[in-house]
Amino acid sequence: MASIGRLELCNLEVRDLQVVLALSLAGTTSKAASLLHLTQPAVSRALLSVEEKLGVRVFERVPRGLVATPQGETLIAGAKALLVELADLERRVKAPVIPPVRIRVVCECYTAYHWVPSAIVDLRKSLPGLDITLSVDHRADPVTALEAGDIDVALLTTAQVPAGQLEERPLFSDEIVFVMAPSHALAKKKALVPADLRSAILITSPTPIAEGQWFMTKVFGRARPRLHFERVPLTEGILDMARAGMGVGVLSEWMAGPHLTRGDLVVRRLAAGPLRRPWRIAWRREAREAALRLRTALSNSSPRLPAVAV
Questions:
Q1: For this UniProt entry, which segments traverse the membrane (predicted)?
Q2: Using the 8-state DSSP alphabet, how is residue 271 labeled?
Q3: Domain locations in the chain?
Q4: What Cα–Cα distance (Å) separates residue 211 from each residue in 109, 116, 299?
């Protein structure tokens, strides 16, 4: 029998990673307990066990809940990647032979087209048997296109999926950030509060009504202040106006990231915490197996804002 080399042993188990991810998502042990279908004391004991195994503190205990330490952030990022790969491995072992399938994919929000095409090129190598193509013509109404059979899979932010012939799952989230020139008055602040946005010129792309409502609710709650928006259809236009000090660009980290290395733009976030926009993946039932494989792959493929921009 050929040698497979020395196997590395580790103290952490899959359950440990699941607990850490649940705590990072929920922010408190009580909410994480609900996600994991455990009691709060059981989750607290599980967290202590993880920290004892690693010899480091994973979360800081603060009055409002739990905040990941730098070591915790590293663990959370790695845990997500490992669990995604494990889920895909399990799925491939259970169904190792998948006949070639062609799936047509559309992204509801155009920001995804800043990275999805190159991601698909890589995914074609790691997902044999799937022929993935983009159908940009159906971006305006992806759910109707799904129901009509014009596409097979859709990446969604705000569109509602009716029960019936369609299925959906959570996918990932991207962060909406505020980009401005270093000379802008708000650049002097480490973080922004809602009052800052009321007084600023906000430069953004034309967005669906539902996405605008999501933004207002996340930032202002029930209040509906009158904001000054400048709608610019091109990402380059948004960034150029922000660079010139004409306002604050409001856009996804995916679009902002590549433009933040020259030092003529800075990023600010809300003091209340990252403004994360949830994404979902929806599909026709006959495309279920292919869509689940694509979901697993995409969950670990979306870009993130580079550390230099923070």
A1: none
A2: T
A3: 14-94, 102-172+278-301, 175-276
A4: 10, 20, 22
Predicted model pTM: 0.61
What mean pLDDT do residues 225-237 have? 90
**Own/partner long-range contacts of 47-51 (Cβ < 8 Å, ≥24 apart):** 47/19, 47/20, 47/23, 49/16, 50/12, 50/16, 50/19, 50/20
CA-to-CA distance for 44 and 235, rounded, in angstroms? 45
Name which of 172, 104, 166 is nearest 139 in CA terms. 104
Round to whole Å and give the CA distance between 254 and 117: 13
- Please provide the average confidence, as pLDDT, over all residues in the chain: 85
Homologous superfamily of 175-276: Periplasmic binding protein-like II (3.40.190.10)
Whether residue 310 has pLDDT greater than 50? no
Are 168 and 161 contacting, i.e. CB atoms less than 8 angstroms apart?
Answer: yes
DSSP classification of residue 185: G
Name the residue with tokens 């759910």.
143
Residue with tokens 């034309």: 206
- Bridge-based pairing state of the strands 166-180 and 248-252: antiparallel
Q: Which amino acid is at 84?
A: V
Average the pLDDT over 192-205 and give the result. 94
- Characterize the bridge pairing of strands 130-134 and 248-252: unpaired
Are domains 14-94 and 102-172+278-301 of this chain identical in fold? no
Classify domain 14-94 by CATH architecture.
Answer: Orthogonal Bundle (1.10)
Residue showing tokens 């870009």: 303
Per-residue CA distances from 270 to 27, 69, 165, 274 (Å): 17, 19, 39, 6
DSSP string computed for 235-266: HHHHHHHHHTTS-EEEEEHHHHGGG-SSSS-E
Report in angstroms the alpha-carbon separations of 204 from 183, 223, 237, 300: 19, 20, 9, 27
| CATH superfamily, domain at 102-172+278-301 | Periplasmic binding protein-like II (3.40.190.10)
